[in-house]
Structures are given as structure tokens and as C-alpha cells.
TrEMBL record:
Gene3D superfamilies: Galactose-binding domain-like (2.60.120.260), Glycosidases (3.20.20.80). InterPro entries: GH, GH10, GH10_dom. Keywords: Carbohydrate metabolism, Hydrolase, Polysaccharide degradation, Signal. This is GH10 domain-containing protein. It comes from Triticum aestivum. Residues 207-503 form the GH10 domain.
Length: 561
């Protein structure tokens, strides 16, 4: 049964469609796009709105064709709106615009899509203000074609207020175009051209030498969570190191694991896990120092007085980070603090800032992260919108916290890929490394559907220019995994495991070979990472190593033979 609120909202949308059609408001048709995706985004509030992306895309304005035109509506539930016709199934739609309020200093504003009056969905959010213009960027994909759809703005809590929008844009991309954008970014950010020059001891070019190049290590970190189940399991260990160059411990570093009772420290399991990853040159993230969720707080900690709690948290940081100083590349300092506030409620609003400060002093070489869920996974969680994440990160840094990494958990249901890209675009404005830290697909979907959705997410994450690493939340247990396993307990691939193996194969250079040209050179395009090159000329063979690091210029390697 639908709620009365939902019934009223649907009728309001239906009335808005009727009014705009019959009273001459803007009506737009879905026309094919041209050009490339615009990764531009803004997280600062501005005195004037910027011009519309894509010159407004398929949106046309009632007062001429000015894509920077203003649209203001003052209503209760519904506010500025656009009617669009003939939206296509599977097309990637990116939506953007600038928003300003009147009558309220700030509010969370959502852009919503009502396709064919069949309910509404969130397609973007922005923390708007009355003293400046804020940028909203989002997007959507439809599961079926629609004849008439409405895009409208509303206050997230649906209280009446005056909302003004400007420079709105709706731009469609076909799936082929979207894939083309991904491939172009991979070519520019994940690969590099290289030329191997072969010369004799006198510097004379060697024409026709046989050159073979093999990638031995990847630059981009792509890994998975592991648990204590990997210890003593040689087959699992081999399976893991054959695929991944990064790891994170699922639960073994969390406070409830390392100190189940006050003063009872247990580091034997994480010590053994660390020895395993270290022995195979696998980088490892530290997860986590604190977790704001009360349900994930050690039982003995919950009843402490504020003074005793402060002492306990300081001991926790010191014992953990002194023991593992220099071992973990990253630390998630205070997990999920946009959703929960166990420590800040008891120690004050500056608790997290103090956590970061002490952690930085204890291990200055580690990169300290925020880590949060539902930032890219959904548009409907008002606690963890992209602007809420940005605002909290900026507040911490303004207070002196050395916060250098953006952690996005990535626990997806059905992914909204255009929205995911839009959120990454906004986070990229902070110029900090962005990591997906816990990617999986909800197990409410069947295995094949999980595989389809996982491939969509991984391709988008790997291709986005601001993403620095990807971790899967797929620690293997005999009774399964948190939401998604790559294999069964016998290490036989499940459909998502096939996806991961195929992408790992796709995103590596493998072996390339050929003869040197008339200039004594052999050129190739390779994924960033470490390489060994073997050159054979006549009866002479020479081997050398080199690395392809990020850069726009061709990497030149000279081998003397």
C-alpha cells in the first residue's frame, strides 16, 4: 500500500506535467549528444553561477535558448522543474546545475526524476545556501524508455522554501560513448607510451633486434580484504598473490578484535597476516583505528566515563600505531563518522580531530583517511551526501587534522554509474587520493546480476582520473563472505570472480614483442608499473628493468648490446 505522502507527491508530479505541457513551459526532446564528458565540478560556493555544462544539453529554456537562464519557483513540495520527452533505456544521463535559496541560510536540496509519473528517484544532491550559488552534479540511467519525465528540485525534508536554479544541463551519452570516455581516460592516466632504443657499445643503432617486454608489477593498487582464514591456507595464499597487489584486514585490526577486554591485547593474528602480505610485497591498508558505530564498539568501552574513555582511546592509538609504525600505507582513522557519533557524543565535537592528530604523530608516514558508505552508492542517504563528506573533510583540515585520503566504501546495490561519476568529479576538486575501500554488490541479487553490476562499478572506478586504488570487500570464509565472494571455499571462481580475473588480465600489458625499426627503436603502450625488457641481436642477449610511472611524455629506455 502506498503512503498518503507518496500518493500526494505522485499527484503533484502529474499536475506539474499537465500544467507545463498545457501552459507553455519548457518541453524538451532527447537529442543525440556530441563531444566528450565534462569532468568539471565545483565544491565551493560562488557569487555567480558558471555557464551550463554542454551548453545546457537537451534542456531548452522557455525564455529563449539561454542555457544560463534563471528559473525560480516557490512551492511547498515541488519547485523548479523541467519536462523532458522520450528518454531512452540504458542511456547515461548526466545532470548538473547551480542552486541558491531564499528564506533559509542553508538546506540539502535534491534533484529528483519522475519518469512517466511512476514514482520519483533522487538523481543528485547539493548543500545549497542563500548567500551564494552551489553546484549540483548527478545523473541517472533508466531501465525502460519514458515518454514524459519531470526533473524537479525539492528540499530534502520537504519543508517549503524558495529555490532558484541556473545553468541547468541534461546531457545523454550512449553506452558506447561512455565506454569511449573510460578507455580514453585509461589511455591517458593508467598507461604510457614507451620506446626502447637498442644500440651497440659505440652508440650505433641496432636495426632488427628482437625486443620482448614483460610487465612484472602493476602500479595501480587493486586488492581485496583478507581474514584470518588465509593463514595456513597455502592454496588461498597463492590464489590471492597471483591476483592482487593490495590487501586490507577485514576485522582483525578493529578494536574489538585487538582488545576484547580492557588491557587484554591480542595482536598475534594481525601480526601473522602482516607477515604474509609483507613477504609477498603486497601493500596493506590499516582498517580501522576507531569506528563511530556503537554496535562495533568493544563492550567494555561502552560503559567508560568520559575521562576513562579518553584515556582508553589514547592508549588504543598508541598501542596500535606504535606497534605497526611504517607497516600500513593507510589508516582509516574514525570509520563512518557521517552516520554515527559514539566517540564525538562522549568526548566532544573535536574528538575526531584529536584522533587524527595523535595518529599523525604516531605514524607520520601513513596516509590518514576518512572512510564512509553511501557517498557514491546511493543518492538517498541524507547523512552521507557528497557535500556532507566534503564539508566534514574541510572542517577537519581547517582544524589542523592531517587528512590526506578520501575513502569510499562502495557497498553497492544496483549502481547508478552516471551518479557515481558525478560524485567522484566533485570529490576530485579536493585534490586528494580517492580510494574505493570495500567494494561489493549486495547479495540480494543473483550471482550473474552481481557480476554485471560489479563490472560496471570496477570499470568506472578504474577509469576515473581521480581514483588512486580499489579494494574489494571479499574476504573468504568457509560459510561465505560479507555480501559477495569471488570464489567458493574450494577457490573455484563464481561469476564475480570471473569478472575480476578478466579485468585484471585486461588491465595489464602482458608480454609485447617486436623488432627494432630503422632507428633502432621499438615502441609500445603499456600499463603503468614495473617491466623487464629482453633484447636479442645475433648471438647476444641483454636484459634490463625499467618502470612506467605516470607522465604525459614518452618514456625512453636505452639498452646497450
Amino acid at each position: 500500500m502506498r503512503s498518503r505522502g507518496s500518493f500526494a507527491l505522485n499527484h503533484a508530479v502529474a499536475f506539474l506535467v499537465w500544467w507545463m505541457v498545457h501552459c507553455g513551459s519548457e518541453l524538451v526532446a532527447a537529442v543525440p549528444p556530441d563531444g566528450w564528458y565534462d569532468y568539471t565540478a565545483h565544491t565551493d560556493c560562488r557569487g555567480r553561477p558558471e555557464p551550463a555544462q554542454y551548453n545546457g544539453g537537451i534542456l531548452k529554456y522557455g525564455n529563449g535558448d539561454d542555457p544560463n537562464g534563471y528559473k525560480t519557483t516557490e512551492t511547498g513540495v515541488l519547485s523548479p522543474a523541467f519536462v523532458v520527452y522520450n528518454l531512452n533505456k540504458s542511456t547515461m544521463y548526466t545532470f548538473s546545475g547551480w542552486v541558491k535559496l531564499e528564506g533559509s541560510p542553508s538546506a540539502l536540496i535534491t534533484a529528483r526524476l519522475a519518469p512517466d509519473n511512476s514514482g520519483t528517484r533522487c538523481i543528485g544532491t547539493v548543500l545549497a545556501r542563500s548567500d551564494c550559488w552551489a553546484f549540483l552534479k548527478g545523473g541517472f540511467v533508466l531501465d525502460w524508455p519514458t515518454q514524459t519525465s519531470v526533473i524537479f528540485f525539492q528540499n530534502a525534508d520537504r519543508t517549503p522554501m524558495k529555490i532558484t536554479t541556473a545553468s541547468a544541463s541534461l546531457q545523454p551519452f550512449t553506452t558506447d560513448q561512455w565506454s569511449m570516455h573510460q578507455k580514453d581516460t585509461i589511455r591517458k592516466r593508467r598507461k604510457r607510451m614507451a620506446t626502447v632504443h637498442v644500440a651497440d657499445p659505440h652508440g650505433t643503432r641496432v636495426v632488427g633486434a628482437s625486443v620482448s617486454v614483460q610487465q612484472t608489477a602493476k602500479d595501480f593498487p587493486l586488492g581485496s580484504a583478507i581474514a584470518s582464514t588465509i593463514l595456513g591456507n597455502d592454496a588461498y595464499q597463492k590464489w590471492f598473490v597471483d591476483r592482487f597487489n593490495a590487501a586490507v584486514f577485514e576485522d582483525e585490526l578493529k578494536w574489538y578484535s585487538t582488545e576484547p577486554a580492557s588491557g587484554l591485547l591480542r595482536f598475534d593474528v594481525p601480526d601473522q597476516m602482516l607477515a604474509f602480505v609483507r613477504s609477498h610485497r603486497v601493500m596493506v591498508r590499516g582498517h580501522n583505528i576507531f569506528w563511530e558505530n556503537q554496535d562495533a564498539t568493544p563492550r567494555w568501552v561502552k560503559g567508560l566515563s568520559p575521562d576513562d574513555l579518553r584515556s582508553a582511546v589514547n592508549t588504543r592509538i598508541q598501542s596500535l600505531m606504535t606497534r605497526y609504525r611504517g607497516e600500513f600505507a593507510h589508516w582509516d582513522v574514525n570509520n563512518e563518522m557521517l552516520h554515527f557519533n559514539f566517540y564525538e557524543q562522549r568526548l566532544g565535537p573535536n574528538a575526531t580531530m584529536e584522533f587524527f592528530s595523535v595518529a599523525q604523530d604516531a605514524d607520520p608516514l601513513a596516509t590518514l583517511f576518512m572512510n564512509e558508505y553511501n557517498v557514491v552508492e546511493t543518492c538517498d542517504d541524507v547523512s552521507s551526501t557528497v557535500d556532507a563528506y566534503v564539508a566534514r573533510l574541510k572542517d577537519l583540515r581547517a582544524g589542523g587534522a592531517v587528512l590526506e585520503g578520501i575513502g569510499l566504501e562502495g557497498h553497492f546495490s544496483k549502481p547508478n554509474i552516471p551518479y557515481m561519476r558525478a560524485v567522484l568529479d566533485k570529490l576530485a576538486t579536493l585534490n586528494l587520493p580517492i580510494w574505493f575501500t570495500e567494494i561489493d554488490i549486495n547479495n540480494k541479487f543473483d550471482a550473474q546480476t552481481q557480476a554485471v553490476y560489479l563490472e560496471q562499478v570496477l570499470r568506472e572506478a578504474y577509469a576515473h582520473p581521480a581514483v588512486s586504488g580499489v579494494m574489494l570487500w571479499t574476504a573468504l570464509h568457509e560459510n561465505g563472505c560479507y555480501q559477495m565472494c569471488l570464489t567458493d571455499w574450494n577457490l573455484k571462481n563464481l561469476p564475480v570472480g570471473d569478472v575480476v580475473d578478466r579485468l585484471l588480465q585486461e588491465w595489464q600489458t602482458g608480454q609485447v614483442a617486436g623488432p627494432t625499426d630503422v632507428h633502432g627503436a621499438y615502441s609500445f603502450s603499456g600499463y603503468l608499473g614495473e617491466y623487464v625488457v629482453t633484447v636479442n641481436a645475433g648471438n647476444t642477449s641483454k636484459q634490463a628493468t625499467f618502470s612506467l610511472s605516470p607522465g604525459d611524455e614518452t618514456r625512453h629506455i636505452t639498452v646497450q648490446i
